[in-house]
Amino acid sequence: MMGYLDKIHRMLKRSTNGTLMTAEVSAAGLPRAQLKQLVDLGEIYSYSRGIYVQANAWEDEMFLLQQKYSRGIFSGETALYLFGYSDQTPSVYAMTFPQGYNTPSLKEEKIFIKRVVLKNYSLGITEVNSPSGNKIKVYDIERTLCDIMRGNDGNIQLIGKAMKKYVQSKEKNFQKLIGYAEKLRVKPKILNYLEVLL
Questions:
Q1: pLDDT digit string (tens) for 120-153?
Q2: Whose CA is closest to 107, among 115, 9, 131, 132?
Q3: Please, is 104 exposed, middle or buried when counting C-beta atoms within 10 Å of its C-beta (0-12, 13-18, 19+)?
Q4: Number of H helices, E strands in the chain
Q5: How many Cβ atoms are within 10 Å of 168's Cβ, its own excluded?
Q6: b or e along 25-59 (b: 16 or more beta carbons within 10 Å of the residue's beta carbon)?
């Protein structure tokens, strides 16, 4: 008969990202106390409430942040980086949350927090691989271009480079871009850039 610890070890072996959620352990009918035992043995550590990481795993900060804050979508300059539109590794990750979402620990993270009205929150959510190869949620490139246009803090150079790369991209979708721009109220700005670049 396989013991509880053996079953948890098997779950950890099957994990492609070195993480184990308390919810997974409970769903498998295993006692959560076993997780503390593995922490005491130094095999795993608690990343945050309900999320454990193998001690020898490569820590994927972006993946873990999204596990911790499941409503957070990578956006802005972080999304540009994930799509290869910026070669600057973000020192602080930009994440967008629906208005009203709040948790005290969020302010302690390396996150630039953006909040949007609920009707625009899910617009353009897609998945990409993090630099470590784990699936994470991010706004697609069209939504990202509209967002950086809206939140323009004077970084004209960044916007110009990103728009130029988008226009040259084989994956560009002008119809989608203009549709988003209309909903996010940046259509005149987007059209100005397109007129110059096309």
A1: 999 999 999 999 899 999 999 999 999 998 865 5
A2: 115
A3: exposed
A4: 10, 8
A5: 9
A6: beeeebeeebbeebeeeebbeebeebbbbbeeeee
Q: How far apart are CA 3 and CA 55, in angstroms?
A: 21
The structure tokens listed for 140 are 């697609």
Sequence-ordered list of residues with C-beta below 8 angstroms from that of 126, at least 6 positions apart, any chain: 137, 138, 139, 140
- Which pLDDT score, from 0 to 100, does residue 153 have? 54
Tokens for 52, please give them: 């454990």
Q: What percent of the chain has pLDDT over 70?
A: 97
CA dihedral 165, 167, 168, 174 (to 10 degrees): 130
**Which segments in the chain show pLDDT lower than 70?**
1-2, 151-154
pTM of the model: 0.86
Residue 13 one-letter amino acid: K
Q: Which of 82, 84, 78, 90 is nearest to 168 (CA)?
A: 84
Q: Look at residue 1 in the predicted model and tell me its pLDDT.
A: 38
pLDDT in tens, 21-32: 888 888 888 888
